[in-house]
Amino acid sequence: MSDDDSEVPIPDAARGTIILDAPACTSCMLCVRECPVWCIELTSHTEEVDEPGARRPRSVAVLDSFTIDWGLCMFCGICVEVCPFDALAWSPQVEPSAETKSDLVSGIERLSEGS
Amino acid sequence: MLVEGQPEEWRQALQEAIADGFTYLDLLSAIDREGGVELICHLVRLEDHRSRWVRAFAADPNPQAPTSIDLLPAVSWPEREVREMFGVEFVGGSPVPLLLVDGREGHPLRKSELLRARQERPWPGEAEPGGRRARRRHRPPGVAEPTDSVSGRRQ
User: Fold this and answer.
1) Which single residue of A24, A83, A106, A114 could bond A110 by disulfide (Cβ 3.0 to 4.6 Å)?
2) B114 vs chain A: nearest CA distance in angstroms?
3) What 3-state class would DSSP assign to B28?
4) Nearest 5°: phi and psi at A33?
5) Looking at CA atoms only, how far is residue A66 from chain B in angstroms?
6) What is the pLDDT of residues B130-150, one digit of tens each?
7) Residue B132: which of A38, A41, A46 has the nearest Cβ?
8) Which chain B positions have a beta carbon within 8 Å of A59's beta carbon?
9) What residues of chain A lie within 8 A of the CB of B128, using their CB?
10) Which structural domains are found in chain A, ordered by start?
11) pLDDT tens column, B97-129
């Protein structure tokens, strides 16, 4: 500890909170299943996409909702590790406290901030 | 130095350690192993700060070992803790419960113990990508199989 009161900049690699790059998410469920504290919930549906030159339309899972409950999360980072498409990443921002427990649940919109 | 043995040798190993001057109880605890519980005790000799580990394996279904309260009164508390948390019976030891509420069944630090909160909340990982129906049911740790009783203890 130093006696200097000046602010120390937060390094870019700081593990503050976890952010979501929703377009990169394929709804594969790996993070949800690996989470030791069950803090991630994900819903998705299947859509058929026509691709030029393809014989049949391709089935693609589309992300409907993605929530992380910061009241349960222990910031272990296993979800970031297992994500095969780097849709989850660490951010140096910090997760603010909340008035109610339900305010600690972040959806796609809040998880995408800063990504 | 490490002494390993059967539960019957546990008391004798502790007795020898105490006779060798290892009279300070640093730790008495247990580890849940496959097929039983491993008892561990760490004793320190205060004169030269050397220490000795004593280990013994108490096999299921009724893990037990002789008590050492008469050799080293300090083991009373950790023996009661191991008895409660791991279900190891210390023969001749204190049967008085330590932390758990009356009527609480099971031994919370055994891996066979089911986590009650997980029986009540559905696992979020059950859903399949794209909302498809699951071909086989995934089941995370600590969750009862459908055939398990809900008493909080795997049968």
Assistant:
1) A106
2) 15
3) strand
4) -80, -30
5) 11
6) 877 666 667 776 676 655 444
7) A46
8) 130
9) 29
10) 17-108 (3.30.70.3270)
11) 888 888 888 888 888 888 777 778 888 888 888
